[in-house]
Amino acid sequence: MSYPISGSLYYMDKSFDRERIGRELDAQRDAGFDLVWVNGPLFRLADLKLRAASDEQAAFDPIACLMEEAHHRRMTVMLEIMAGEDWYERWDLPADLETSYELISLIGERYGQHPSFFGYYLGNEIYIVHGAQREYCKTLWTNLARCCKQATPGCKVALSPFFVTDIAEVLGYTYEKPEAYANFWESMLTGTDIDILMLQDSGAEHASCFPLDDREPYFAAVARACSAAGVELWGNVELAEITVSNYEELKAFRSDFGVNGVGFHDPRWVQVPLSKLRDKAGLAERYCSRLVSWGFQQFVSPLSGKSGAAAYYEQFQTWNTSRIAK
């Protein structure tokens, strides 16, 4: 069975006004999306507290605007909960629980009752961890998912982890076989209120040289884990990739700049060729009940400014909307 990519991760900051939000959502809706999951600095605790304390009639709230504009387009919205972008450097469970509880309270009270609200996205993207780091994730997610359900009854709670196929560990990630992912995720999800796991199909690599055959065992393993834990598996089918031939080239691309290299403007960042995207979607839908994505805003949207985006958007729109059940 084929079905469309139905939404994409969307970054927002305080520069977003109503006109920009509307144009962005139009591009997404017209491409076949009906879900937008959102992250960015607007979801940091200091920003949320500032908006909560402001005069609601006088201050423009980009998140509230997004919720309204999404509702007008019959789209739903999932909002991020993450204590801080440096969480994986600190692993400070007490502090991150405290911050996250405040985030859930503020977001739930201010946005959780809006008709376009779908749920919460726990933004800690991870693969397999052990020891104290594993306990951090299990405790954090168990408690936050429960808190989300209490704050907004009927909401959905989602994660979006990745997997690592770099056997030689060139990039510095610890390699684990697919079966380890099945065991890890069944253990992590069982007994929690997490509803959805959105598995990134390119993990932390984003490399164009990453063959599809290497990905399938991980989808199969995580699908087994989700089935055992009663959690819905979605495929996060990424729309952009880095043009490299091997992991050594990818390591050089990153250099001292991090996962994205010098930035998305680097010409080695490209849209996934449509023929390859078809194959990626085909792989994901063999195991997943719904497809979402990353990279639309930065690489595919006609508003992105990325080279080739306008032409690619037309092709993507035609392909993706053709997959919507009539």
From TrEMBL:
Ranges of residues in domain DUF4434? 56-302
Which Gene3D superfamilies does the record match to this protein? Answer: Glycosidases (3.20.20.80)
What superkingdom does the record give? Bacteria
The protein here is known as Uncharacterized protein DUF4434
Q: Which organism is it from?
A: Cohnella phaseoli
